Structure of 6-phosphogluconolactonase:
Amino acid sequence: MIQIEKDPAKLGEVAAALFVDAAKAAIQEKGKFNVALTGGSSPVKLYGLLAEEQFKSQVDWDKVNVFWGDERWVPLDNEQSNAGMAYETLLKNVPVPEKNIFPMWATGITPEARAQEYTGYLKKELGESGVFDLILLGMGDDGHCASLFPGTAVLNEQEKWVEGYFLKSKDIHRITLTAPLINRAKKIVFFVFGENKANALYEVLEGERNPSLYPSQMIAPVNGEVQWLVDEAAANRLNNN
Ligand SMILES: O=C1O[C@H](COP(=O)(O)O)[C@@H](O)[C@H](O)[C@H]1O
């Protein structure tokens, strides 16, 4: 399903309501809510809204486990840190216990080893099924999502849940959930804002299948659903909406 709005702020409100609903449903069903956050600029509005009373008060934060879909391998106080941004905009403003927060970056360990360690945390909290209740994803203007970048070997990964690797094109290590794990989620929400994403969005949703060039094409939940929240600028090349 795709929802297109002129104003991306409106989509922040849609996403906040959706987050609250997913949290309530999961907590009612099994007593906890496992969510993977995204980084970049797109979720900033959502995180700010979730920290506001009207949304914050509707979530039982004690029962929320916060993971990430991907991370740039930098400390949390680095301006590039996805987790750092989420702390600043959301996590430090809501009563989620620190023990329920699982940043991907850690000191004194390689990204590759950290990916294995992170898999352990996921198995403990999600069980062997590996089903997230909600995964938030942004999409870059090259069609990447999480740290699934065009032409990278991680796109071929079938077994691992989490991968750490050096992303040559950006000269930085990345750590990311793999596509098979993402696709086990109950619900996946993409945020795509801005005219610079219009071409990639068209290719992902309406172009020929070529996931090694447009990795977001790999996202197709096995038993869940994917929702696209897109502003008009990003949607301007789409025909079928
Ligand atoms: O590098 C990344 O970029 C994507 C897209 O970011 P945006 O600024 O275009 O929203 C993001 O989803 C991902 O988490 C991040 O590591």
